[in-house]
């Protein structure tokens, strides 16, 4: 998979390193000469150019990219890059970094964004996840379909502890995608049982989040009554 990353700062380089380790082809784009640090990510392609300019994106051959990541520290730049990638080059997947949470509402399909990653929101979500059991935590917002990646740690008193995944009457428009149990990452099957302390990751419609939280957090005594 070919991935172009606009913004070769610490965030962009870190993403590039992860993708390269997973065998992907990566192009880093930045207009600041000081940001072009080839020695830090030598396996990547580098382009000194303004990612908001069509001529630069032509040079980057953006039409050959499977994914574009707008990872600069400027929300305006990230929106422009996302829009150009989607509308001018037809890039299938556009991921954009949101620096200011007040701008998050802009990062949607109207601006060509498929997935918006808000660093401040993600940090706060991870803090919430670390201290809360039984509360639904929103980790990531997907622009298409109004869906979110959400997490909930199954509490000890949950009525679903010990229940097989296939026996749960899950809300509509929700999908259990991963169970994290200790150091193990499980792809759930219908026969897998839920255990107290499991971290459950769902892709869920925003309108179903409250219903999902109620289902997972219900206490045994309430379920029995």
TrEMBL record:
Identify the Pfam families for this entry: TrkA_C, TrkA_N
Keywords in UniProt for this one? Ion transport, NAD, Potassium, Potassium transport, Transport
Domain RCK N-terminal per the UniProt entry, residue ranges: 1-117
Identify the domain of life. Answer: Bacteria
User: Quick check: keyword Cytoplasm in the entry?
Assistant: no
Q: What PROSITE patterns does the record tag this protein with?
A: RCK_C, RCK_N
UniProt domain RCK C-terminal: residue ranges = 137-218
- By what name is this protein known? Trk system potassium uptake protein TrkA
Provide the species name.
Streptomyces levis
Q: Source organism lineage?
A: Bacteria, Bacillati, Actinomycetota, Actinomycetes, Kitasatosporales
């Amino acid at each position: 998979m070919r991935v172009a990353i606009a913004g070769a700062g610490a965030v962009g380089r870190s993403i590039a390193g992860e993708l390269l380790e997973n065998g992907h082809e990566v192009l880093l784009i930045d207009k600041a000469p000081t940001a072009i640090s080839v020695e830090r990510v030598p396996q990547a392609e580098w382009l000194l150019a303004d990612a908001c300019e069509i001529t630069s994106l032509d040079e980057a051959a953006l039409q050959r990219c499977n994914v574009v990541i707008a990872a600069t520290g400027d929300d305006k730049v990230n929106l422009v890059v996302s829009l150009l990638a989607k509308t001018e080059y037809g890039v299938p997947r556009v991921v954009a970094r949101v620096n200011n949470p007040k701008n998050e509402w802009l990062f949607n399909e109207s601006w060509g964004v498929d997935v918006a990653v808000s660093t401040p929101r993600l940090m706060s979500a991870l803090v919430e996840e670390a201290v809360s059991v039984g509360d639904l935590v929103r980790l990531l917002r997907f622009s298409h379909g109004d869906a979110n990646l959400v997490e909930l740690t199954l509490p000890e008193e949950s009525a679903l502890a010990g229940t097989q995944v296939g026996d749960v009457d899950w809300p509509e428009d929700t999908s259990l995608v991963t169970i994290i149990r200790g150091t193990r990452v499980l792809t759930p099957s219908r026969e897998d049982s839920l255990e107290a302390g499991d971290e459950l990751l769902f892709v869920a419609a925003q309108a179903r989040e409250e219903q999902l939280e109620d289902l997972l957090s219900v206490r045994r005594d309430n379920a029995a009554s």
